[in-house]
């Protein structure tokens, strides 16, 4: 759902999730309030903007704004008080495009031949540019610069009878990753792409149902987790209940493994696997992979914490919070200059000297993207008096960009794409550097045999370069992210 790329802001040193979706149906007149809560729980998936569309049986109402959910949908908000409905959908947006315009904030609401239609999308359509050009050539007028709007135009042009059939026909033309929630006059629909790359879960709340990018979005509204929406599944929720179909050709599931490593909240569960437990298991695998003699295991907070706990448990080396995170600073990516970014790293993490001075430290982080943040952190730990810093990373080297809805720098900016592990260790100033192996990562995900090289059990393209959806347009797709 994004726009032409603004290179000046493409300097983040970590990967970022692109969006969250949420939908609720059949909950008296509180769907809009539940949606605000759900989006709040999913804030980590997108902080640039948020929006919702609600339906009260007669009217659709919409609201959207830049910034966090709490800034837009707080309890005293007049706009929120003016909303009502038994059905609603919502969206949190993350974007690096710099085009923070209201017109790009989802959910989109439009009027089609069969009535109102609201749409929220998490993912990235890799053939969106081609489809958009051909739609524009045939007279389509686009209101936004997002790839998501392509779906709306395809649905609008479909001659199929029902809204469901129109959505299916539109999605048959789409290549890429999507988890969608759609709102019609009296229907909520959730769809996942045939590979199930981006997550979507189903919950039950009283007489109604909830769809959310992660199960933590169900927990906050008190919904009972029912199950993951399956890859390629369409869920239709209306006054008669919840109906499932699988309209697309079956593919092997390729859920994004990085959801487990970094993106998802640790209290979320996908396909029966707790994210927290998976991260601890990765730490345990790291400890088994390479024995390091050290005094303390220290996480780079927050995402390195569960892996560090797993490492400490497996190795018997004490876990300590040697780095303290300040949660009240802006994100690194909003700093447009290298000097600004450097300062932000320092503002976000501070050394806890008492836990580091004179010690040999195993430092656990989730990933290394460009290497700039790692260099600052290692330097900070050494300045605090650490004797040695052994960096352990809870993901394999990131060597390729993501085309499926995650913001990554171009390949030539990914340090692991042009340096060996030893060279990266020297570059970031670490005494040693260990990345979890591909097989170790898969073992931590419950695949005792490791990674299936012929048919990997997840999408791991940013580590392997093995893209599950291969298309000639993929290499051009960084301009249209969702
Ligand atoms: S390329 Fe990486 S970040 Fe993107 S979907 Fe695949 S595993 Fe996830």
Uncertain stretches: 1-11, 331-336, 472-482
Oligomer status: single chain
Quickly name the level 1 CATH class of the largest domain: Alpha Beta
Q: Strand-residue fraction?
A: 15-25%
Structure in a nutshell:
The chain is α+β, with helices and mostly antiparallel strands. 27% of the residues lie in helices and 24% in strands. The strands form six sheets. A seven-stranded antiparallel β-sheet has the order 4-3-5-2-11-10-12. A six-stranded antiparallel β-sheet has the order 6-7-8-9-13-14, with helices on one face.
Secondary structure layout:
Layout: E1 16-17, E2 19-25, H1 31-41, E3 49-55, E4 60-66, H2 69-72, H3 78-81, E5 87-93, E6 108-112, E7 115-125, H4 128-137, H5 148-157, H6 163-172, E8 176-184, E9 187-192, E10 201-205, E11 208-212, H7 216-219, E12 224-228, E13 234-238, E14 241-245, H8 258-263, E15 269-270, E16 273-274, H9 275-289, E17 296-299, H10 305-315, E18 323-325, H11 338-348, E19 349-351, E20 360-365, H12 372-383, E21 388-393, E22 406-407, H13 415-418, H14 421-428, E23 432-435, H15 438-444, H16 461-464
Parallel strand pairs: 17-20, 20-21, 21-23
Antiparallel strand pairs: 1-22, 2-5, 2-11, 3-4, 3-5, 6-7, 7-8, 8-9, 9-13, 10-11, 10-12, 13-14, 15-16, 18-19
The protein binds iron/sulfur cluster.
């Amino acid at each position: 759902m994004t726009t032409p790329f603004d290179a000046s802001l493409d300097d983040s040193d970590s990967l970022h999730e692109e969006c969250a979706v949420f939908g609720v149906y059949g909950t008296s007149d509180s769907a809009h309030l539940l949606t605000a809560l759900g989006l709040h729980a999913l804030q980590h998936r997108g902080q640039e903007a948020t929006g919702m569309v609600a339906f009260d049986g007669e009217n659709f109402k919409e609201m959207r704004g830049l910034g966090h959910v709490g800034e837009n949908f707080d309890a005293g908000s007049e706009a929120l008080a003016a909303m009502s409905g038994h059905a609603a959908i919502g969206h949190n947006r993350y974007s690096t495009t710099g085009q923070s315009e209201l017109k790009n904030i989802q959910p989109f609401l439009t009027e089609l031949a069969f009535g109102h239609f609201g749409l929220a999308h998490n993912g990235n359509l890799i053939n969106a540019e081609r489809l958009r050009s051909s739609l524009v050539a045939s007279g389509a007028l686009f209101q936004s610069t997002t790839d998501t709007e392509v779906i709306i135009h395809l649905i609008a042009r479909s001659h199929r009878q029902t809204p469901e059939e129109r959505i299916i026909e539109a999605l048959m033309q789409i290549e890429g990753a999507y988890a969608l929630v759609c709102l019609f006059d009296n229907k909520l629909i959730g769809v996942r792409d045939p590979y199930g790359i981006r997550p979507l879960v189903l919950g039950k709340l009283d007489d109604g149902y909830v769809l959310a990018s992660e199960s933590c979005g169900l927990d906050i509204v008190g919904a009972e987790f029912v199950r993951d929406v399956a890859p390629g599944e369409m869920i239709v929720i209306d006054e008669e209940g919840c109906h499932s179909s699988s309209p697309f050709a079956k593919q092997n599931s390729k859920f994004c493994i990085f959801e487990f490593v970094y993106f998802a909240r640790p209290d979320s569960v996908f396909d029966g696997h707790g994210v927290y437990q998976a991260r601890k298991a990765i730490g345990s695998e790291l400890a088994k992979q390479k024995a390091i003699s050290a005094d303390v295991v220290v996480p780079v907070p927050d995402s390195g914490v569960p892996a560090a706990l797993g490492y400490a448990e497996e190795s018997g080396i004490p876990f300590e919070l040697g780095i303290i995170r300040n949660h009240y600073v802006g994100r690194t990516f909003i700093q447009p200059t290298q000097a600004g970014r450097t300062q932000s790293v320092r503002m976000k993490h501070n050394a806890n000297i008492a836990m580091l001075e004179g010690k040999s430290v195993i430092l656990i982080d989730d990933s290394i993207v460009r290497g700039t943040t790692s260099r600052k952190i290692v330097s900070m730990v050494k300045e605090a008096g650490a004797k040695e810093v052994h960096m352990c990373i809870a993901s394999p080297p990131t060597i390729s960009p993501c085309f499926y809805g995650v913001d990554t720098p171009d390949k030539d900016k990914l340090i692991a794409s042009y340096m060996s592990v030893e060279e990266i260790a020297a570059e970031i100033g670490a005494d040693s550097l260990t990345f979890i192996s591909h097989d170790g990562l898969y073992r931590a995900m419950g695949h005792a045999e490791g990674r299936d090289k012929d048919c990997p059990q997840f999408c791991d393209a940013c580590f392997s370069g093995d893209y599950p959806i291969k298309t000639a347009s993929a290499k051009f797709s960084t301009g249209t992210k969702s």
